[in-house]
Write a structure and sequence with these properties.
Layout: H1 10-18, E1 28-29, E2 47-59, E3 64-75, E4 79-85, E5 90-95, E6 98-99, E7 101-104, E8 111-115, E9 126-134, E10 148-149, E11 154-156, E12 177-186, E13 190-192, E14 196-204, E15 207-218, E16 225-228, E17 230-236, E18 242-248, H2 255-262, H3 265-276, E19 284-289, E20 295-296, E21 302-305, H4 315-323, E22 331-333, H5 340-356, H6 362-372, H7 395-412, H8 414-427, E23 431-433, H9 435-446, H10 451-458, H11 483-493
Parallel strand pairs: 1-4, 2-12, 18-19, 19-21, 22-23
Antiparallel strand pairs: 2-3, 3-9, 4-8, 5-6, 5-9, 7-8, 10-11, 11-16, 12-15, 13-16, 14-15, 17-18, 20-21
Helix pairs in contact: 3-4, 4-5, 5-6, 5-7, 6-7, 7-8, 7-10, 8-9
Organism: Saccharomonospora cyanea NA-134
Keywords: Aminopeptidase, Hydrolase, Metal-binding, Metalloprotease, Protease, Signal, Zinc
GO molecular function: alanyl aminopeptidase activity; metallopeptidase activity; zinc ion binding
């Protein structure tokens, strides 16, 4: 995980970057970051991206990646230059068809400063074409390489950063775009990404090109690439949406358990639609692979490490990652400190699934979890509402985060609670939001002042004196049947630390 020095007030930086005035006619450089409190160097100021066209050639034997990314963007202010987030070696950049000057920031090699031949006017569409070639597994940022080379290919899957190892971007969840991802690989090798496979072609002997399209806005860290030896399955969900599932051919004895879980994705999506509202994307599916170590909610097609299915089928992780298609993908974080909006609700969806299949109610799971962790455990010292960059994926963000959701539910009642979830997701679809905005909506819909419940469960260290079900809740006397599967799933997810 990258760490960068940050000075100055976050609020002031966000105002400067995100709402820079367009009244001035004097062009100025775009900001090198959006002022995120955890990763202030992430993203770039002065423009919004609408589309990425990523066209690549990848050779698994050498891990050589080359290609061209075309970025369609609109300046939000008059720009003399702008930044891209990218770590690989650049060959050339053209802006509106003219060659541009390219420089690396001396203090941060992922900051690429592009100076076009002519300044860019606010509101005028811009086309940026970046050609590049490199060996991603040999490129480190702050001593860390997110690109994962495997026995048969590679994985561009990670959180909170991955785009810098395979395409130049405005790398922050607040700037979402649509995507075309086209990857040429040797025959017999699969190249998987988000959305719908529009075609697979052979343009030269021994090579095939896989063309994927994502038609709904997508955050940069949710774009993924998985290249290797996969068995790819195509089907159609009862809803009519295409389903693409892929399994590493080296899964061995784990393969049946993986299939028994991931092939149920349409069933899980149907269940979640009943809670959250219509599925927000154009396709469904999952990829099961080796060499990842965790699972991630890559948009339309979550990626799972094989280890999740080592003990048998695992519906908890499938529910968790598909719940993220709403909480995290359709409605993304406003800043990385809002991680509870992703993980707390995806975890609570596991509780709701357990209740749905008769393996323990959400209330039983919440109470058992609360009772099973001693008050002096370090778990209670991590704040889900602001865990810090070093603890973004700590078990407390998942588990205490889910307890916070249950505490909210018992405070406002089921009718308001589920109305709140659907309203939040509907009003902010394809966008992003913050914890502060969620709290404001919860108070508006419930007509109740909710500072205490959020302060206690999200922002106060120590074990709350009253359990998540309130003072009247009875302690769970037996372990809910699904508890061990959920606990195992969260241990695996927390490996991103």
């Amino acid at each position: 995980m990258r760490t960068r020095v940050y000075s100055g007030g976050v609020a002031a930086c966000l105002v400067t970057v995100l709402t820079a005035t367009t009244a001035s006619a004097v062009p100025a450089p775009g900001a090198p970051g959006v002022g995120d409190p955890y990763y202030p160097g992430d993203g770039n100021g002065g423009y919004d991206v609408t589309h990425y066209d990523v066209r690549l050639t990848y050779q698994p034997e050498t891990d050589r990646l080359s290609g061209t990314t075309t970025i369609l963007a609109t300046p939000t202010t008059e720009l003399s230059s702008f930044n891209l987030d990218f770590a690989l070696r650049i060959q050339s950049v053209r802006v509106n068809n003219s060659p541009a000057r390219v420089e690396r920031d001396a203090t941060d090699p992922t900051e690429v400063v592009v100076t076009p031949k002519r300044s860019l006017r606010a509101g005028d569409p811009v086309t940026v074409v970046v050609r590049y070639a490199d060996t991603p597994s040999k490129v480190a940022v702050d001593g860390f390489t997110a690109w994962k080379r495997t026995d048969t290919g590679a994985l561009a899957v990670d959180q909170p950063h991955i785009a810098e190892w395979w395409f130049p971007s405005n790398d922050h969840p607040t700037d979402k775009a649509t995507y075309d991802v086209s990857v040429e690989v040797p025959d017999g090798v699969a190249a998987l990404s988000n959305g719908v496979l529009t075609s697979r072609t052979e343009q030269r002997p021994g090579w095939s090109r896989w063309n994927w399209r994502s038609t709904e806005p997508q955050a940069t860290y949710l774009a993924f690439l998985a290249v290797g030896d996969y068995d790819v399955r195509y089907s159609t969900a009862p809803s009519g949406l295409p389903v693409v599932n892929a399994y590493d051919t080296a899964l061995g004895d784990i393969r049946p358990a993986a299939e028994a879980s991931v092939e149920r994705t349409p069933e899980v999506v149907e269940f979640l639609e009943g809670l959250f509202g219509p599925y927000p994307f154009e396709a469904q599916g999952g990829v099961v692979t080796h060499g990842l170590g965790f699972a991630l909610e890559t948009q339309t097609r979550s990626v799972y490490d094989a280890g999740f299915f080592a003990r048998g089928s695992n519906m908890s992780v499938v529910v968790h990652e598909n719940a993220h298609q709403w909480f995290g993908d359709s409605v993304s974080l406003g800043k990385w400190s809002d991680i509870w909006l992703n993980e707390g609700f995806a975890t609570y969806a596991e509780f709701l699934w357990s209740e749905h299949v008769g393996e323990g109610t959400a209330a039983e799971l919440a109470r058992y979890l609360y009772d099973s962790i001693p008050a002096d455990d370090e778990f209670w010292q991590v704040l889900p509402g602001d865990p810090g960059a070093e603890n973004q994926f700590h078990p407390a963000v998942y588990d205490r985060g889910a307890l916070a959701v249950h505490a909210l539910r018992t405070t406002v009642g089921d009718e308001v609670f589920f109305e709140l979830l659907r309203t939040w997701l509907d009003e902010r679809r394809d966008g992003h939001g913050t914890i502060e905005e969620f709290v404001a909506l919860a108070e508006e819909l419930s007509g109740t002042q909710l500072d205490e419940v959020f302060e206690v469960w999200l922002f106060t260290k120590g074990k709350p004196e009253v359990g998540p079900g309130g003072a009247e809740a009875r302690a769970a006397v037996t372990e809910p049947e699904s508890y061990r599967e959920i606990a195992f799933t969260h241990q695996q997810l927390a490996k991103r630390q």
